[in-house]
Amino acid sequence: MIRINNLERLAREHYGFLEIDLKKRINNNTNSEELKQLLLSNSILKKIISGRLEEIIELQNIFRDNFNNYKVDIEKIFSYEWFCRIKVKKYDAYKLMQKLNVTVCPYCNRQYTFTVMKKVRPEFDHFLNKSKYPQFALSFYNLIPSCHTCNHK
Q1: In this predicted structure, which of 12-26, 46-60, 107-121 has the lowest mean pLDDT?
Q2: What is the distance between the alpha carbons of residues 141 and 7, in angstroms, rounded to a whole number?
Q3: H/E/C letters for each residue in the chain?
């Protein structure tokens, strides 16, 4: 088993780094006042981004029952592509991978997973598929560092 130290702290930092940008994305990417109110509630947004897997799975019922018609908006708000884009940002997928300090794929334990800032990094597998559950595409506990081979099985 690969051990990652300070997971709770890293999850809180992940939320802290994304919070302001996500709130802007919420305001700019949906016209649904009900969806905005839900997501701008700090407890819900914080749970989506830094909650443990069991917690975010509980939230799925809220989205399935109330916001199925807003999938496109939700995909824009929680865009994994936006998070991965190579830009000068305070925090992105490269910085998260660097903080996790995982040097071998946790699935196969064979492939090295080094991060070279803004050049190369391992992929993130999404335990909850990002196309089916776009609201969890940036959830800390849903981002599993992996090699390309394991991520595409």
Answers
A1: 107-121
A2: 9
A3: CCCCCCHHHHHHHHHHHHHHHHHHHHHHHCCCHHHHHHHHCHHHHHHHHHCCHHHHHHHHHHHHHHCHHHHHHHHHHCCHHHHHCCCCCCCCHHHHHHHHCCCECCCCCCCECCCECCCECCEEEECCCCCCCHHHCCCHHHEEEECHHHHCC
Nearest C-alpha neighbor of 78 from the set 6, 149, 30: 30
Q: What is the pLDDT of residue 97?
A: 86
**Whole-prediction pTM:** 0.88
Q: Is the dihedral of CA 136, 13, 118, 147 positive or negative?
A: negative
Q: Is the pLDDT of residue 113 over 80?
A: no
pLDDT at 41: 82
Q: In the predicted model, is pLDDT for residue 88 greater than 60?
A: no
